[in-house]
Every structure is written in structure tokens, then in C-alpha cells.
Amino acid sequence: SARKPFSDKRVRQALMMAVDRGTVIEGAWSGFGTAIGSHYTPNDRGYIDTTGVHPYDIDKAKALLAEAGYADGFSFTIKAPQMAYAQRTSQILQAMLAEIGVTMTIETTEFP
Length: 112
Known about the structure:
The chain is α+β, with helices and mostly antiparallel strands.
């Protein structure tokens, strides 16, 4: 990504490490899901299991943000459709990112 602060690899890594995927699955999907760490499903040829590459680690996430020059965090906005699962997922992520000082604003969009 060419857009700051996301252009810094450490920021992207910190955001990934701030997310407890199990909590997202439990909270937004009632436990029906599996963390796969990829855009592909395990049945797809292109699937590579990366779930252990950036595990949940709040302290490491904060350290990475500080290294990248964002010790006090930063703010950004995401767009999420009004469906319950999308809103709940966004709210869970919002709370998790707040733990590392990142303020995520949720802009609700209409879905056709």
C-alpha cells in the first residue's frame, strides 16, 4: 500500500498481531469458522497456511507501531455494510485495535 501509515510493513504487521482471530470467529460468527490466514480456502490450490506468521501479541504489536513512529497510534476509517455480521466484526476489530492505540471509525454503507 502506498498510503501512510499502511505503507509501513511494521504497521501492517502490528494490525495483524492486534487481532485475536478466535475472538472474531466466536463473537461475529458464533464460533462457526476457522482462522485460515489466507484469502484462499484450505481446499484451494493456492492456499498456504499463514495463521502462525503474525500471531496475536498485543505487546509486540505496540512495539512495532512504536518502531514505525506511531507510538501514540493513529486513526483511520473503514466502510462496512449494514449486515449484522459485518457490523459485529467491525466492532470487534475496532475494540481490538483500540488496545494498541489505533482508532478505527466504522462507516456503515448500504448493501444492494
